[in-house]
Structure formats: C-alpha cells, structure tokens
C-alpha cells in the first residue's frame, strides 16, 4: 500500500489538535462586565449608582405605572379603555394576586431595592475616593428607602391602621446575587418605616448638598431631596411634628419660601414650566429623566395613560362629573392656571401634564417637588395647631396663588384649613401619584366614581394582594387578608 | 505503477466491449405496488456496465454475452438480483425498503443496513412530502413516524411546527430535535420578528431524499451532547449513474382558514351589550342625554344597519404556486444532482406571503479507487411577509393581533366610513365607535393591514466538502467540512396615525442578524470480517463546531411624512434595536464499535466526550455513551419451522446517556453587569445572576423492542418501549421576586423528568393485485410524561402565555405544562352567576353587578371572605401533552390512479381554550353566537352566565377557570391526494417519459369535540412548558392544490 496516503490523515489529525483551542471553550462576553470588574474604577462606580436610579425609574415602577396606579384608585379619573393590562383592574378594585400590575410593580420595586443593595455592597470595596463613596452610598440608601415607601403604599395597610402593627414587606437589605434562601417573612409596617427612616437619616448627611450642575440637581438626590422625602414619609405615618422639624430645614418661617441651604429649592412663578422641557428647575427636587434612547417602555409612560391619541392611549380621562376635582369649580375656579393642563378632546377631558408621546418624546416623571414640601408642612402645622395657623395658611396660599392670583384662601376653622389643604393637594398633584397615599394615610374610603362604588377602608381591596410569584417561591410570606 | 494498471484495465475493458458479443436487455422496474420506479440502478453483477431506469421505470441496457446476473438497486428499495438466462425482457418488482432488512439507513456519521441497526431509527421518505403544500419540510411530518409528534401551531405561513421526539425532553432548553443536513448540524427555529421565519423553510423539500429520526440512546449517543431531544437527519438527493434525468414538479393551491367560530352580528351585539349595561344597573342612555352610555347601531349609506363580519377584513383565499426543476445523472466516476426551485405562497391571512428561491448542487466524484471527493452547495433566498398575526409566541394579548381582532371588534361599526376613509378614532387610538356611546377598544384591522408591514428575509448558504481516503483495505479516513451561513434581515413599518405605531409617532425598524457556523468532522472507519462469522466495524472521530451569532439594527421613529415607510426615509429619531452578540464552540471526540456474530447477534457500543463553551469552567466536558444489542431470532435454526408465517423477528434493546445543550445562552453560567442609560448618563448594573456549577442536562434512555415481518413481509410490526429519564435539567430557578434578582431567575441544573411510552408501527400490504394495490401504515405512540424534580424545593413553575395569564403549571408528579385552573361548576340556575369552587370544595358565585366588596358570595347569598383565584383555589385539571399521537396512512392504486389519505390523530390531553374566555368576555368585546344562550330568567339551565357589562371574571379572562379547559382529542385528515399517471404510450407520444396529475387537500377535515377553532394549536410555539394553549391565534389553514409531475 502506498505509504503516502497515511500522510493525509496524519496531517489532518495534526491540524485538528492544533485547532481544538482551549480559548474557544472560554469565550469572553464582549458586551458585559464580570463581577470582578464591576466596581474597579470611579467611572464604573458612578455608572453603578446610575444603575440604581435607572432601576427605580423602571416604567413599571416610579418611572410611570406606579404613579398611575396610585392616582386612578382615586376618584379623579375614569377608565375609557377597559384594558386589563393598563390599570383597569386597579381602577375598579378587582386586582388579583396574578394581575400583571400587582406582579410587575412588586418585581420592579424589589429589583430597584436589590440593585441598591448590590451597589451599597460593591461600593464598600471599590477603590474610589472615600467622600465620593459615602455620597454614592447615601444616594443608594435614599433610593432604597423610597422604593420601600412606594411598595408600602400599595401592598400594606396604612401606618394609621394600628400604628404600623399590620403586615408590611419582607425587608431585604443584603445584596442578592446567587442561589440562596428564598424565604423571608414580612416585617411589620412600623419595622419597614423604621428602616426607611434609618436609610434616609443616614443619607441626609452623606449625600451632596448640591451636584455639579442643575440637571444633576434634578435627577440625582441631594440633601434637600432627602429632607423633602422625609416630610412625605412622616406625613404618611401621621408624625406631624417630625414633618415640621424636617420641613423647617428647607422652608423659611415666612415668604419668600426658598430653601436656605443646598439647592435653592422654591416654587417657580408658573406651574406651566414645572413639567415642561428641560424639566430641570429649582422647584423639582427629584425627577426621573427620559430620552428617546431611554424610554419608559410600552404602556408605561404617564402620557400613555392620560394623553388621548396620538400622543397616548387615552386610557383614563378626568372625571368631570360628580366628585371629580375637575368638576368642582368652587374649590378650583376656572381662573386657575393649573386648569390649563385639562384639555377637552371630543366628549372627554384629559390631563395633559405630560403632553408628549412617551414612545418617542417622553416627558420626565416627577418624584417630589418643593410644592409638596410646602403643603406637607402646611398640613402638619394645621394638624398640630388649633384654629387657622397663619404660617400654615401662608404656605397653602403660596401654592394656590402661584397658579391663581385672583384667589386668597381664607378658611374659617382648623377643619376648613385642613380640608382646603387636602383639596389643594388633589389639584396641585393631580396625576403625580399621591392620591392613594392621601386617602389611605387618613383611612378614608376610596370615593365612588363612574360605575365603581365607594370602597371602605376596611375592604380587602383597600390594598393590593401580595403577588402570586412571591407566594409560590417565598414560603414565609403571608397574603393580605381577603385575597 | 498504478497508472499503468489503470490503463491496462481500461484497455481490457475496451477490448471486451469491442469483441464481446453484446445483446440488449430491456424491462420495467416497479415498486411493490406496481408504480414505475425511476432512477433504479441496473447493473451487470461484477462489472461496471449499467444504467438507470427512466421516469417510467423502463430501462434498456446492452450487456456482454457473458453477463449472468442483473442487480437492481435503488435508495428506499431492497436490492434484487435477477438471473439473465435467455430473457431479454424483464419485469422486476422491488420490495419497498421500509419493509426490508436491506434498506440502507442513515445513522450518525454513517449508514447501516436495517438488519444491523440495533438503535431506534424512523425513516421518512422524501417522496412523501415532496408535493405537500407547506413552506418547510418539517411541517409535513405529522403522523408519519412513531415517536415523532409534529404539531402545526396555527395557519400562519412558515410558523415553525412543534416537533417532539418521544415527548418533551427539556424544560428550559430546546426540545426541538437537532437537525443535521448531509452530516452538518444546521440552524433551526424562528429567526423572524413579527413575520414568522422558520429557517428550516430555507431547505427545498423537493431536494430531500430521506429523513431519519434518531430516537434512542444507541442511535443518538454518537451526537452526544445535542441528542437528548432526538436527531433529525436530512439527506439530500444524489445523482445516479446514467443519462441526465430532468424532472419538473409543480403545483398551485388555494388556502383558506377553516373552522372559524360564528360571532354576534351588529344587532345581536348591540342588544347583548345593552342588556349587560342594564343588568349592571347602568342602562343605556340614548343621545343626546347624559351620561353618554350604551350601544347603538349605525347605518351605512344605503340605510342598512351595519353588521361587519370582521373575518372578511382579515382572511382571504390565498393563492400559491410551486415549481421545482431537477437535473441529475452521472457516470461511474462522477454523479451530480442539480435543482432550482421557486415557490410563491399566499397565506389565508391577508398580507401573509412566503417566497423562496433556491438552488442546490451536489456532486460526488471517485478520483480513483482510494480517493473520493465531493460536496454540495445550497443557496436559498426566503422572504417571509406577514401582518401582526397575534399568533406567534408572545403575541397573544397584543391589541393589534389579527387572530384576535375579528373576534373582539364590535360588529356594529364598519371598517370604513361612508366616504371611504378608515373608521378610526385618533383620540383613543381605537376603531371609530359609530353611534355607540360607550367606548370601544382595539384597532381597525383594515388600517393596520393596509399600512403596516413586517418582513423577514433570509439569504443562506449551506455547503460542505468532503474527501475520503481508503488507507488500507477496510480502513477509511473521511473528512467533512461544512458551513451554514445564514443572514436574516427583519424589517418592520408601523404607521403613525393608528395602531401600535402611534406611540412612536410612526416607526420603522430594520435589523440584520448573522448566524455563521463551521463544522469539521474527521472520521476513521474500520470494517473487517474476521473469519466467516465475525464482523467488526470501528469508528473513531473528532468534531468541532464553532458558531457565531450577532444582530444589530435600529428603529427610527417620528415619521416626518406619512410618505416614508422605509428605514432610509425621513424620520426624526433613531433608537438601537435587535442587538446581540455571541459565540459558542463545541469540541468532541467519539467512537463506535459495531460487532455482529453471523449477522444474528448484534452489538453496538458508542461513546463521546464533548466540551462546550457555555458551561462553567470545570463543568464544560461531559461524557456520553450508548450501547445496544440485537438478536435476529428468525435466523436461528429453531425458527425455520414458522418462517413461512413469521419471516423476520428481531429483538433489540439499548441503553445510554446523552446530553443536551441546545438552546442554552452562550454565556449562561456567568454573572454579568450590563450597561444602559439613566437619562443621558451611562449605567452599569447587575444583569445576570450566574451559576458556577452550570453543566449539561443529561438523559438516560432505555429502549426495548422487536421488529417482526409476517407473510414474507406483507405485514410488518415494530413495537418499542422507551423510557427517557432526563436529569440535571437546567431551569430558570424562580427566585422570590422580593430577592430582586434580575429577571427573578437563576439558571440551575435542578430538574428531572421522565418520558415513557410505547411505540407501535404496523405496515401492511393489504391488497396486491396487478391493477389494484392497497398499502396501509399505522403508527401510534403513547407518552407518559412526569416531572420528577424542580428547583427550590420542587416549587411549581407557572408558564405565562404571552407574559399575562398562566394556565400552565410545571409541578412534580404531573405532566409538564398541565393545566391549573380554578374549578367551576356551571351557572347557578337561580341567578345566572358563574359558580366557582374553592380548593376546599366550598362553592362561591360571582356577581359583577354588585359593589366590589360583595361580588363574591356563597350560594346561600352570604358574602364570601374573598374571591376565588388561581393561587388559592387552582387545581391540576389534566395534562396538556397528548397521551397518545399517531398516524394512519393509506395508499390505494388502481391502474393509473393513486389515492393517498393520511390521518393524523392525537389525544388524551386537554387544551386551554383561552380564546373562549375572550369571546365570552362582557367588556365591549364581541361574543360568539353561543352568548345568545345567556341566563335570562330564574330556573334557566345554561352554560352562559347572566351578562353584566364589564364582567371579565365569569368568563375566565381574569381567572383561569376549568370551564375553559377542554378535552383535546382529535383526528384530522391531514392530507388527501388523488393522482393519475398517464399511460406510458400517451406520455411518450408527448415526448415525455412520465406525467402525473394530482389534486390534494391539506387539513381536509377535523373530527373533534373541542369547541375552539382547532385542538391542534400552540399559542406558545415551541415553548416546552406551555403546550396546547389556545389564545387568540388564527386557526389552521385548509389548502387545496392541484399539481403536475413531469419526467423528461
């Protein structure tokens, strides 16, 4: 036999051994970083912090839907589209543990919490400047606190129900990055609030007083933001004295109401400019930025729900009949500039606070602004004083007269004052996600609207159920009563 | 020296040709049914003298006078020898090889005679699918082989079928078999976006010679790591010696949706919805009174009440045509096969089209007696165009899906206004609501069908080259290098005025996907017969496969002018879309030993070691093996007495361990941080929780069976028991959402599942007369699937349909994807309320008209503490996977006529009829005619609750209910074809060697009690965990086609 023929397979075998490269068995992803590289530079540390913001900003959470859910549970909106995917079930109080909003808001909220936990852990060992590290960790903690606070409003009974003794949330404070224990019972509402306040109290001295530019002051948490958030948290707990203590750090005793330290937060002269591009101003204390490359996602943007086509889907119109705030021209005269947001279209009136198309020209989503601090403080004073407190009334009128100089509110009694403040909140923060909190913190019923009847504070539907996936995987969890 | 010998040989041959006294033999070769067999090789035994038969099965051959015997052989037929004697005319009938022990069967990295095969291999002849009006060959495999279940999800063109070899073989990874074309594993699955694009549609069905399905460990272990879900080996046609043969095959066909459900007309809809409003306590209020509420008919220009049948706006009769031309031939050195084909198919849905242009060239060449080379090249362009069908996985709940729109849209409004413009409401981005005062939802399909467009186009080259060298007698080295280069362009345009495009101000999106693979195999094969009794075959091999995949693209938004509907037009924004980048690599070393003693006792052992890049370091390699034994009892002496009755009996058994990595992400094991944006700032975030122990899924396969032939193979029986024990299943281990792990899952080898069952195949040649033959083939497979272990303390896994409702559960002790629903107990005759059953057995009823807090009551009227829901009250209703599937294929032939009827059947399972929930929903959606039977008076017994406007609970939209879980048994006449072959005399007068006409129907009839469109359905496509879900998808298509096969 021809020996030459043996060369061919031998040659082939040789080539083959050379080609079985170990490298090809160890491909390195070109578009993601391994954990060992994730916190190694100042750039990456900052990007990690931004990652926590972006998780908080998820369109299923604070970037969009969670605001909608909290507002449409109230009486000021009517559902037009009957779409079970876009808050219809929330609006008419028929959500179940498998409803998509119940599942998605929970998951998105905890995703933000875990990102904060991962970054708090990761930054601790990151070789960056210590002061920067402290500030970043403070911001992450504030975001964690705000995420827990947001989830509490939907999934747990209000603090007022038994002083926080009801079931709250599972309190996850460790970075979860691997297969590990699933089970964690719900802490009480009070325990969760304690953690929220602990995070905010630690964040307050840690975060910067001001960031490098106005955009960052609007999109990143600074000291005044933390203080403002604390006024909201204390108000939700009914700890009015603490609201006053915190608010006083950034609200002077009398007009002009401008924060004395840090970012000079104040009311803008015109409400129209607060939510308009460039979205960056001294009234906005924290807002979530969107760009065409960073959209809230399909059916997530505020405008999707409230704008009629073509800039939205018009899922919800303003309730222009009965108890809808828009219908109340006595409390909210037609001379008020804030009515300019209410745009009639066909037979309906839509809220056009975020008039642009969230799929292509997304408006930014507000988190907290100075007007809220003023009204939080006004209410806290009113509730801790008798009669009509002058400073409380001045704060209230500061908000009212900014939009309607023809009116000066003059309630006759303490009760009238409180009522006027609550009404003012409905007008001022319409669509900004505060309505549920303003109803539940006072254990009021959700008022009737359209074909939906009123819901008493004792009804199980007063809060959402714990979502099904959590029930299945977390054996220590407890479902809310009635679900 | 060699050259000299060769020359001498040629000279001797020439001399023989010159001086031998030649004579001419002629004859006809048919199959056992009397059909002429083309391309049969006719050869003088022991010489190279030979020819092949023409399309009419005839041959003519000049042979030397010393020729003694003719050998007739053909792929798919058993070879036969005939003594020449004094005959000059032959009439030879070849035995179909599927009943023959001498059939050549393609196995992993080689071929075997059926007699020697001890693994479980099913063979499907290419001829069986050649003329079937499908887009890809895999759609034509339903019912054709035991153990191979093929479900067509719906009637969307080129939608990948669900193929399962002996059940679902994975939970998270792919259960689709590995597809190997001419020895090279190719890409399969869905590459399109909104337009379905099954990349197996790139293979022209007419190019396929045979398809082998490898089912057990003995057959599949040689594919080691990729074999758990079975292997589908495609062998394309090769040329044969003889003059060039030209064949032209064509058909034209008409396609329509069938079994559509009747919906309420305009007046009925109006009345039912108003009744619902009245029952809610908010009766309709005619204009101009306030509040604006209620449903009111409108009239068209001629004053008639508008009653739109929305099916007419969406469906059509699609026309299709198919043409295929092949040229093949060769001489003793070189054979070739060439094909060119074109198909242009319209689907039953408007704007759903499929076009394919393909060409293939296969060549084999014997350089000399020790060196062969050859190869093949196949280029295909496939263009898939579709509207948003709402029928692909993930689309079920889209409000633009064309499966859903015609069954939810209000029929009392028209698609167009009297002036011809679209009836749309641009404020709410819904259909215009005519005189209705309560708002309508959903888009106008007339607009989105006309304006929007989606396409997915492939350019693909499949090619391989091989060389084989005979080193020593019995020792051959073979090397094969193959590539699969697939380039896909997906395009999408959605207009700005109405529909899904509104939110983007109009959108166009183009993305380019590239899939590139090379595969190199080096095989050393040794075959030796030792003495007269021992035959040994040894295969040693190495295989490497490298796959690269990337996608990139962008979406442009904010249409500058409605004129622009292409990416390059005027748009104000650009956003990245469709980006991915990955690679993987597989290296393998394998071997196989076949041994037999006296061709009676057979043994085969194979082993393989695979390394795969996507597994964790230290866990990359897996070892796999298979072993099998066979015993040809019928060759034993003691058997000879009954050989007249049982002419063949073989027992076989196999066991082995194979693996699965198919469908695993390229970087599945790593923990990773990805980048994104927070406004304009860059982000980096924890994106994947990895698992440093991630490794192969494994499958232990046991297979025991026998094959028996009776009455000289007139009846053949094959019975096999199988048991696949699948372990280390990689699951997206569900993490408590409160852990905040990205996606709330971590991939982990935690699951275990068993598939066992029985396969039975019975082939019979029932009537075999000269003019009339009847052949019948029946197969049935039973399947018992049981999930044995799951992640995290065996937590149930719920499989969401399109991210929303979760009717399917993966639970230990149950069949995968069983239906999990709240039990229902009809409608309470007293008050017309749906009765639900708590898990503890207590019954509650639902009244949507009551205040929210008191909607749920016990049957005595007391308020229930909570509503029924799936988490608290769900129970397993039954399996979603069929317990039995099979086929019954009958062929009749009378003179020139042939009739083939293929019945496909399946059952023992349930189907979740989510579509039924939709067509009983009491929001503004339309309902089926059935809703006219709603409860209206006390004591009335009916299955439809009292209608209350807005009620989405009683019908099962908000909660998965048992009412919507139905038995899925069916039998379907998948294919029926009647053909006529012109008599030889006539066709030759036309200058043609054969002509056959035929007419055929696909999906002619379905026999079932299922109330939806069709129980053969899969809204979740090929997803393992959610089979038999029917949710808003289009029905199956019925196609009638007529065709022509011409041989020149």
Structure characterization notes:
The complex is a heterodimer of chains A (483) and B (1048). By secondary structure, chain A is mostly helical. Chain A has helices at 7-19, 22-25, 42-56, 65-72, 88-91, 100-124, 130-155, 189-206, 214-219, 223-237, 240-248, 302-306, 370-384, 390-403, 414-428, 435-440, 468-473, and strands at 77-79, 167-170, 186-188, 284-288, 316-318, 342-345, 348-351, 365-369. Chain A has one domain (42-444): Alpha Horseshoe (Serine Threonine Protein Phosphatase 5, Tetratricopeptide repeat), CATH 1.25.40. Chain A is built from 17 helices and eight strands. In chain A, β6 and β7 (348-351) form a beta hairpin. With 1048 residues, chain B is mainly β. Chain B has a domain at 20-95: Sandwich (Immunoglobulin-like). Chain B has ten helices and 55 strands. Chain B has a 22-stranded antiparallel barrel. A five-stranded mixed β-sheet of chain B has the order 10-15-16-13-14. In chain B, strands 3-2-5-6 form a four-stranded antiparallel β-sheet, with no helix packed on it. The chains are: A mainly alpha (483), B mainly beta (1048). The interface between A and B is large, with 121 and 114 residues.
């Amino acid at each position: 036999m021809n020996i030459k023929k043996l060369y061919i397979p031998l040659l082939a075998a040789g080539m083959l051994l050379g080609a079985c490269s170990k490298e090809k068995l160890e491909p390195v992803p070109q578009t993601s970083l391994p954990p060992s590289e994730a916190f190694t530079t100042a750039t990456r540390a900052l990007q990690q912090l931004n990652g926590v913001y972006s998780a908080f900003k998820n369109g299923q959470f604070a970037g969009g839907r969670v605001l909608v859910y909290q507002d449409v549970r109230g009486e000021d909106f009517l559902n037009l589209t009957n779409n079970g995917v876009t808050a219809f079930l929330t609006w008419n109080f028929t959500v179940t543990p498998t409803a998509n909003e119940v599942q998605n808001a929970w998951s998105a909220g905890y995703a933000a919490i875990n990102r904060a936990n991962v970054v708090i852990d990761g930054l601790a060992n990151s070789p960056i400047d210590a002061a920067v590290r402290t500030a970043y960790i403070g911001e992450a903690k504030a975001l964690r606190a705000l995420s827990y606070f947001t989830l509490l409003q939907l999934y747990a009974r209000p603090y007022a129900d038994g002083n926080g003794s009801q079931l709250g949330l599972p309190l996850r404070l460790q970075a979860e990055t691997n297969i590990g224990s699933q089970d964690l019972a719900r802490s009480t509402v009070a325990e969760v609030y304690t953690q929220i306040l602990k995070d905010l109290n630690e964040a307050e001295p840690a975060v910067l007083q001001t960031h490098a530019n106005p955009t960052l002051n609007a999109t990143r948490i600074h000291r005044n933001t933390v203080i403002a958030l604390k006024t909201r948290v204390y108000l939700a707990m009914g700890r009015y004295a603490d609201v006053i203590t915190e608010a006083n750090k950034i609200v002077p005793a009398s007009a002009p109401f401008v924060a004395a330290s840090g970012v000079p937060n104040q009311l803008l002269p015109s409400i129209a400019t607060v939510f308009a591009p460039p979205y960056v101003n001294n009234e906005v204390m924290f807002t979530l930025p969107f760009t065409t490359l960073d959209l809230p996602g399909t059916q997530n943007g505020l405008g999707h729900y409230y704008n009629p086509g073509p800039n939205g889907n018009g899922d919800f119109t303003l309730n222009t009949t009965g108890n809808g705030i828009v219908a109340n021209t006595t409390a909210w005269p037609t001379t008020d500039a804030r009515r300019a947001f209410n745009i009639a279209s066909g037979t309906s009136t839509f809220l056009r606070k975020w008039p642009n198309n969230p799929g292509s020209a997304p408006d930014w989503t507000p988190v907290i602004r100075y007007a809220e601090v003023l009204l939080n403080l006004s209410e806290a004073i009113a509730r801790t004083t008798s009669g009509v407190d002058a400073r409380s009334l001045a704060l209230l009128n500061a908000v009212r007269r900014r939009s309607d100089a023809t009116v000066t509110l003059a309630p006759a009694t303490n009760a009238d004052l409180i009522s006027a403040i609550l009404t003012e909140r409905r007008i001022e923060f319409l669509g900004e996600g505060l309505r549920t909190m303003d109803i539940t913190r006072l254990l009021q019923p959700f008022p009737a609207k359209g074909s939906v009847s009123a819901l008493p504070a004792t009804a199980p539907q007063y809060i959402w159920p714990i979502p099904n996936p959590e029930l299945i995987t977390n054996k220590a969890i407890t479902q809310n009563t009635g679900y | 020296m060699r050259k000299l010998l060769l020359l001498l040989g040629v000279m001797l041959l020439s001399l023989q040709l010159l001086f031998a006294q030649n004579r001419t033999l002629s004859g006809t070769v048919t199959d056992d049914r009397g059909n002429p067999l083309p391309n049969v090789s006719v050869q003088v035994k022991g010489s190279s003298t030979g020819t092949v038969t023409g399309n009419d099965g005839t041959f003519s051959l000049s042979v030397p006078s010393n020729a003694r015997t003719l050998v007739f052989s053909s792929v798919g037929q058993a070879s036969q020898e005939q003594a020449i004697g004094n005959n000059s005319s032959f009439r030879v009938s070849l035995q179909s090889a599927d009943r023959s022990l001498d059939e050549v069967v393609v196995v992993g990295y080689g071929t075997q005679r059926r007699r020697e095969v001890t693994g479980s291999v099913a063979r499907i002849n290419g001829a069986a699918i050649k003329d079937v009006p499908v887009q890809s060959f895999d759609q034509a495999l339903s019912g054709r082989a035991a153990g191979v279940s093929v479900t067509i999800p719906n009637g969307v063109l080129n939608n990948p079928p669900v193929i399962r070899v002996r059940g679902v073989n994975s939970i998270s990874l792919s259960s689709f078999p590995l597809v190997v074309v001419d020895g090279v594993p190719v890409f399969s699955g869905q590459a399109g976006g909104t337009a379905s694009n099954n990349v197996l549609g790139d293979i022209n069905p007419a190019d396929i010679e045979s398809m082998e399905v490898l089912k057990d460990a003995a057959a599949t272990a040689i594919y080691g790591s990729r074999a758990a879900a079975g292997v589908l080996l495609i062998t394309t046609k090769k040329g044969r010696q003889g003059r060039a043969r030209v064949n032209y095959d064509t058909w034209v066909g008409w396609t329509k949706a069938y079994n559509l459900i009747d919906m309420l007309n305009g007046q009925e809809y109006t009345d039912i919805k108003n009744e619902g409003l009245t029952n809610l306590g908010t009766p309709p209020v005619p204009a101009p009174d306030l509040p604006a509420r209620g449903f009111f008919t409108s009239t068209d220009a001629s004053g008639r009440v508008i009653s739109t049948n929305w099916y007419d706006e969406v469906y059509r009769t699609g026309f299709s045509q198919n043409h295929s031309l092949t040229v093949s031939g060769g001489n003793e050195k070189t054979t070739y096969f060439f094909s060119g084909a074109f198909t242009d198919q319209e689907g039953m849905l408007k704007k759903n089209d499929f076009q394919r242009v393909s060409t293939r060239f296969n060549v084999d060449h014997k350089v000399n007696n020790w060196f062969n080379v050859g190869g093949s090249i196949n280029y295909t362009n496939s263009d898939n165009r579709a509207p948003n069908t709402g029928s692909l996985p993930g689309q079920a709940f889209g409000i633009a899906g064309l499966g859903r729109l015609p069954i939810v849209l209000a029929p009392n409004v028209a698609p167009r206004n009297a002036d011809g413009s679209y009836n749309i409401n641009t404020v709410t981005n819904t259909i215009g609501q005519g005189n209705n005062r309560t708002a309508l939802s959903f888009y106008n399909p007339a607009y989105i069908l006309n304006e929007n467009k989606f396409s997915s186009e492939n350019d693909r080259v499949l090619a391989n080259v091989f060389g084989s060298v005979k080193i020593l007698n019995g020792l051959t080295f073979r090397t094969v290098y193959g590539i699969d280069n697939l380039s896909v362009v997906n395009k999408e345009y959605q207009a700005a005025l109405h529909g899904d495009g509104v939110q983007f101000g109009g959108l166009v999106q183009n993305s380019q996907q590239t899939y590139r693979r090379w595969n190199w195999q080096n095989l050393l094969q040794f075959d030796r017969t030792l003495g007269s009794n021992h035959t040994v075959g040894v295969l040693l091999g190495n295989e490497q496969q490298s796959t690269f995949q990337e996608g990139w693209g962008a979406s442009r938004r904010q249409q500058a002018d409605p004129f622009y509907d292409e990416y390059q037009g005027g748009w104000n924004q650009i956003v990245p879309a469709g980006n991915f980048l990955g690679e993987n690599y597989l290296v393998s070393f394998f071997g196989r030993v076949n041994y037999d003693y006296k061709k009676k006792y057979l043994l085969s052992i194979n082993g393989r070691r695979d390394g795969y890049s996507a597994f964790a370091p230290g866990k990359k390699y897996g070892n796999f093996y298979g072993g099998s034994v066979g015993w040809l009892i019928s060759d034993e002496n003691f058997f000879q007495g009954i050989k007249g009755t049982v002419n063949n009996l073989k027992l076989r058994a196999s066991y082995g361990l194979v693996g699965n990595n198919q469908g695993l992400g390229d970087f599945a094991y790593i923990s990773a941080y990805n980048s994104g944006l927070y406004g304009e700032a860059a982000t980096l975030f924890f994106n994947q929780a990895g698992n440093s122990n991630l490794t192969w899924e494994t499958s232990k396969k046991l297979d025991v069976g026998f094959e028996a032939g009776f009455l000289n193979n007139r009846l053949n029986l094959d019975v096999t028991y199988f048991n696949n024990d699948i372990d280390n299943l990689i699951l997206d281990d569900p993490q408590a959402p409160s852990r905040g792990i990205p996606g709330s899952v971590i991939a982990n080898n935690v699951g275990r599942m068993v598939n066992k069952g029985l396969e039975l195949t019975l082939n019979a040649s029932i009537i075999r007369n000269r003019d009339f033959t009847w052949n019948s083939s029946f197969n049935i497979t039973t399947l018992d699937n049981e999930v044995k272990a799951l992640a995290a303390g065996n937590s149930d896994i719920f499989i969401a349909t399109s991210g929303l409702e979760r009717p399917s559960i993966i639970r230990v002790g149950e069949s995968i994807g069983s239906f999990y629903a709240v039990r229902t107990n009809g409608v309470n005759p007293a008050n017309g309320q749906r009765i639900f059953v708590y898990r503890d057995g207590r019954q509650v009823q639902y009244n949507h008209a009551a205040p929210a807090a008191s909607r749920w009551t016990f049957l005595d009227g007391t308020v229930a503490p909570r509503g029924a829901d799936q988490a608290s009250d769900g129970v397993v209703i039954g399996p979603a996977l069929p317990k039995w599937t099979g086929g019954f294929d009958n062929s009749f032939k009378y003179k020139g006529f042939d009739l083939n009827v293929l019945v496909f059947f399946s059952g023992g399972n349930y189907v979740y009829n989510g579509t039924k929930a939709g067509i009983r929903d009491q929001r503004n959606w339309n309902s089926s005619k059935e809703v006219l039977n709603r409860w209206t008076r006390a004591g009335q017994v009916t299955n439809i609750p009292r209608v209350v406007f807005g009620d989405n609970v009683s019908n099962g939209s908000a909660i998965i209910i048992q009412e919507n879980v139905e038995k899925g048994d069916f039998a379907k006449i998948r294919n029926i074809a009647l053909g006529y072959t012109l008599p030889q005399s006539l066709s030759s007068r036309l200058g043609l060697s054969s002509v056959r006409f035929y007419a055929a129907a696909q999906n002619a009839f379905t026999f079932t009690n299922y109330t939806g469109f069709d129980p053969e359905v899969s809204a979740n496509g090929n997803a393992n965990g959610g089979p038999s879900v029917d949710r808003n998808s289009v029905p199956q298509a019925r196609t009638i086609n007529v065709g022509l096969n011409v041989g020149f």
